Amino acid sequence: MTNNHKATCRATSNIAFVKYWGRTNHQLRLPMNGSISMNLAAAYTTTTVEFDPNLDRDQIDVTSTALDEKQAARVFQHVDRIREIAKTDTRVRVASQNNFPMGAGIASSASAFAALTVASAHAAGLSLDEKQLTILARQGSGSACRSVPSGFVEWHYGKTSEDSFAETIASPDHWDIRDLIAITQTEHKAVGSTKGIELVTTSPFNDTRVDLAHQSMDIIRQAILDRHWTQFGEETEREAIRLHMIAMTSDPPVFYWSPVTMRIIKSVIEWRNEGLETYFTIDAGANVHVMARGEDADQIQEKLANLEGVEQVIHSTVGHGTQLVEAHLFR
Ligand code: DP6
């Protein structure tokens, strides 16, 4: 590679309804079960990658946060995967920016690694199809593979790397549902998902959860295709609770919920009993993703914002997949 090659991509975060929480292969990030998510239009990362023959080492600049050495190494290790395919050892300059506050508890690894993968592949001059890009993104961060395709996305668990990819099951305009993300804390979580996922086999209930997750895949995929809100919401809640049951019964146990998390869960159930049909899901943190139908979303957002301990509510529609953009983060 003799000339400079540069590309910028924008990728959204995503929220999973059937979750990735357990791996059969840690290095390749092959999950124990398939998962289904929607992209979050309101939370995205923009990343510029440039291959520069004048550099003697990789460089990264992440606006608004300082990455520690381990995090930076994980980024460059991921670029190595692209360098290997492109057969180059040219160093890169990377700059990345989130439109949501880092450390607000919104998963940033999904959007970050999706944007990094697609930008690096383009900058390296590779023409990979979407499936190949999801396979690559998955190895950087599992959930990132679901941020590459558009809309509602399924990640097939697969027994080999080539079989473990993500694809769209429905476009963003298929169904107007919203994710109201109730931000409850701004500190970084105590146990990151990478570590939490490594612990699943220490829970005596893990095999049961994986069996049930396979069933949830069929139920939730069908509910999305049929736009069946009750079926979708009830199964999404069950699946989320099971993830946390595994975390709480791992050795050592991991407790992601805070008292505010519990307050939101109880409020959602109460609102539902009063006739406002809304459901929750929770990732590896204390924030609660409250799912709403488009027509109910503003009302629910207001109710959430009034709960004690809720700092902010991010209102997201269904987002598109990772896209190339013109505006680079550096010259
Ligand atoms: C709870 O994708 O962050 O959000 O592969 O180690 O980077 P790594 O894990 P990550 O885990 C996400 C876990 C989750 C559930 C989900 O998004 O499916």
Layout of helices and strands:
Layout: E1 5-18, E2 23-25, E3 30-31, E4 35-51, E5 59-62, H1 69-86, E6 92-98, H2 109-123, H3 130-140, E7 152-155, E8 166-170, E9 177-183, H4 193-198, H5 206-226, H6 229-248, H7 259-273, E10 279-281, E11 288-293, H8 297-305, E12 312-316, E13 323-325
Parallel strand pairs: 5-6
Antiparallel strand pairs: 1-4, 1-13, 2-3, 4-6, 4-7, 7-8, 9-11, 9-12, 10-11
The chain binds ligand DP6.
Ligand DP6 binds next to helix 4.
Notes on the protein architecture:
Helices cover 35% and strands 24% of the residues. The protein is globular, with a radius of gyration of 19 Å. Strand 5, helix 1 and strand 6 form a beta-alpha-beta unit. By secondary structure, it is α+β, with helices and mostly antiparallel strands. The relative contact order is 0.19. The longest helix has 21 residues, at 206-226. Strands 1, 4, 5, 6, 7, 8 and 13 form a 7-stranded mixed beta sheet that branches. The mean pLDDT is 95. Residues 16, 19-21, 29, 35, 107, 109, 141-143, 193-194, 197, 283-284 line the site of ligand DP6.
Outline of this structure?
The chain is α+β, with helices and mostly antiparallel strands. It has helices at 69-86, 109-123, 130-140, 193-198, 206-226, 229-248, 259-273, 297-305; strands spanning 5-18, 23-25, 30-31, 35-51, 59-62, 92-98, 152-155, 166-170, 177-183, 279-281, 288-293, 312-316, 323-325. Bound molecules: ligand DP6.
